[in-house]
C-alpha cells in the first residue's frame, strides 16, 4: 500500500504535527488544559486527520512508533510553553489500543515527563473503555504504574462502552470525558438534561472531573454549568488549532 510506505517516511521526515483543542473551565471560562490531536502534513494529499491514516498505521504495526512521537511532541510543547512563561496547562494525549498494550509504554511516558518542564500531573492520558476492558487485570496494572509516575488518566468516550459500574469503580481515573453524543443529541441538554446530568454525577461519585465534549452552543454550556460539569471542550470555545494559534490563545489573559 502506498500509504504505508508514506507513513514510514512520515515518521522519519517529521511530517506529523499536533493540533490542540482547549478544555475550558465552565465558570471562569479559562483554559485548564488542551487535548492534542494528531495531524499528518502529507506532501501531496494535504493535512490528514487520524481517521484517514491510523487504521493503516495499525495494520502496518506503526501505531507504537507514532504514539511515541505524539507523547514526545506533547511534552516538548509543554516545555516550550513553560519556557515562554505561559501559565501551566494540562496537555492530554489520546493513547491507541496497541500502544496501551505495549510493554514499553510506561518507560516512554516516564522519560517524556522528566523533560517536560512541568510536574507530571500536567500530562493527561486519554484511554477508552474498550481498550481497558480487553484485559482488565493487565490494564489495572498499567494504569497503576502510570498513576505512580504522577500523570493523570482520563476516560474518553465515557458512556459509550460496556464497562460495568462495578468495574468503573476500580479504574484509577482523574477525569471522565462525557461523549459528544450525550451533549449533541436532540434535546440532550436543552429538553431533558437529566441523563447527561446523571453521567456528570456519576463522574463525581467516581471522584473524577467531568469534561463535556462537542459543546457547540451557549444553551448546552448553561445546562452543563447547572449540572455541575467542570470543563467543556468544543467548537463553542475553539476547534483544534495549530500550536502557534494555541500559543496565542494561552497568551491571552486567562
Ligand atoms: O479531530 P479529529 O478528527 O482529528 O479526531 C479524530 C479521532 O482521532 C478522535 O477520536 C481522537 O481521539 C483520535 N486521535 C486524535 N489524535 C490522536 C492520537 O494522537 N493518537 C490516537 N491514537 N488517536 C488520536
Ligand atoms: O478524542 P475524541 O474521539 O474525543 O475526538 C473528538 C473529535 O471531535 C475530534 O475529531 C474533534 O476534532 C471533534 N470535535 C471537537 N469539538 C467538536 C465540536 O464541538 N463539535 C463537533 N461536531 N466535533 C468536535
Ligand atoms: Mn480524546
Ligand atoms: Na472522546
From TrEMBL:
Residues 238-254 are annotated as: Disordered. Residues 1-254 form the EAL domain. This is EAL domain-containing protein. It comes from Nitrospira tepida.
